[in-house]
Amino acid sequence: MSTPPLKTRERLSEVRYEIRGELARRARELEAQGRTLVKLNIGNPGAFGFRAPEHLQRAIADHIHGTDPYTHQQGLPEAREAIAAHHARRGTPDASPDRVFVGNGVSELIDISLRALLNPGDEVLVPSPDYPLWSAATILNDGRPVFYRCHAGNGFLPDPDEIEALVSQRTRALVLINPNNPTGAAYPRALLERVVAIAAKHNLLLLCDEIYDGIVYDDAVFEPLAPLAGDVPCVSFGGLSKVHRACGWRVGWAVVSGDRARSADFRHAMDLLGALRLCANVPGQFAIEAALDGVDTITPLCQPGGRLYEARRAVIEACAASAHLSLNAPAGALYAFPGVVGDAAKGFDDHGFALEMLETEDVLLVPGNSFNVPYRNHFRVTLLPQPEQLRDVFARIDRVLSRRAQA
Ligand code: PLP
């Protein structure tokens, strides 16, 4: 009789992270067979030749001294001071280092925040489409994601009335991702003010993922949530991965704002959970001060002539020229989320399409349904490749969709 296989956590069956899932595994197999792929599945700046700014690299080199002990669980004091000062400059009320938590990327802090907050059965309002770590971390910390829809027809902006209608006795927190992954939406101030009012009325913690906070295009403006939230408890997440193109260093932060007394227990819980994992990667923390006190290196990339701007322009133009695609032009972040329309959309299945693109066109996309939406006619690409490469990718996409439209 054979020994039964190891059991794993049951709720993992509810969790998906297809950005690095089955299609990415198949892509590795194809690469092992010698195929050269264009992998558009991950917002991974370093993989597309972006370099972290020199002064950040120097800050790490200058500070490493070989001993590099564990830091305080909330992070190096200098790093936390720089983060607090950065937040104070942009209007976060009462931003101070004791309310800053440095982590191994925003990813770790999302998990820690939800673990600090949730009891079994508690609900978290999560956008759909979402960045799937938010729903995964809610589930794995015994909560239940309740999705509010951000409709393509509404520029992928949430509808505050719909959000409020989903609030129940069990709702504890409301997640915003601004600028948004995967849709590229950037939320206007009036909308954020309405969301804050909902959180205030129903005593919800605002969890605002602002990892793309400097990445906006044309006349879009990034509106930080914490200054608008005022006394309402709010956690704002940021980091070095995207704006500073240093994702492999694994540096993120969470800043708790709002009424101190109301968030005291939550901050103690964050501190305890931070202590259990000792501290964040120390060399990465050395770069925080340089990143936040130094020159703005992301805006030039997002303006006409800048690489991200031109990549975005290439995608917008390719979608406009295709009879099979519709796109809400991304206002921010590093992605486009086109929809397939017309004859090509008949019987369309985003996973099958992504598999076909991989097998026949050497392009790895992420099916839209991976972002917890109830439809299957979207896909996501990252804007990180060179514009010419994106033009070539969209020519291949159009070829496959034209074939499907005629079938
Ligand atoms: N939040 C969003 C919306 C993201 O898109 C990502 C990464 O792609 C993360 C968080 C994770 O960022 P980090 O590299 O800081 O863990």
Automatic annotation (TrEMBL):
<keyword id="KW-0032">Aminotransferase</keyword>
<keyword id="KW-0808">Transferase</keyword>
<dbReference type="InterPro" id="IPR015424">
    <property type="entry name" value="PyrdxlP-dep_Trfase"/>
</dbReference>
<comment type="similarity">
    <text>Belongs to the class-I pyridoxal-phosphate-dependent aminotransferase family.</text>
</comment>
<dbReference type="GO" id="GO:0030170">
    <property type="term" value="F:pyridoxal phosphate binding"/>
</dbReference>
<dbReference type="GO" id="GO:0004021">
    <property type="term" value="F:L-alanine:2-oxoglutarate aminotransferase activity"/>
</dbReference>
<keyword id="KW-0663">Pyridoxal phosphate</keyword>
<dbReference type="InterPro" id="IPR051926">
    <property type="entry name" value="Ala_Aminotransferase"/>
</dbReference>
<dbReference type="InterPro" id="IPR015421">
    <property type="entry name" value="PyrdxlP-dep_Trfase_major"/>
</dbReference>
<dbReference type="InterPro" id="IPR004839">
    <property type="entry name" value="Aminotransferase_I/II_large"/>
</dbReference>
<feature type="domain" description="Aminotransferase class I/classII large">
    <location>
        <begin position="37"/>
        <end position="397"/>
    </location>
</feature>
<dbReference type="InterPro" id="IPR015422">
    <property type="entry name" value="PyrdxlP-dep_Trfase_small"/>
</dbReference>
<dbReference type="Pfam" id="PF00155">
    <property type="entry name" value="Aminotran_1_2"/>
</dbReference>
<protein>
    <recommendedName>
        <fullName>alanine transaminase</fullName>
        <ecNumber>2.6.1.2</ecNumber>
    </recommendedName>
</protein>
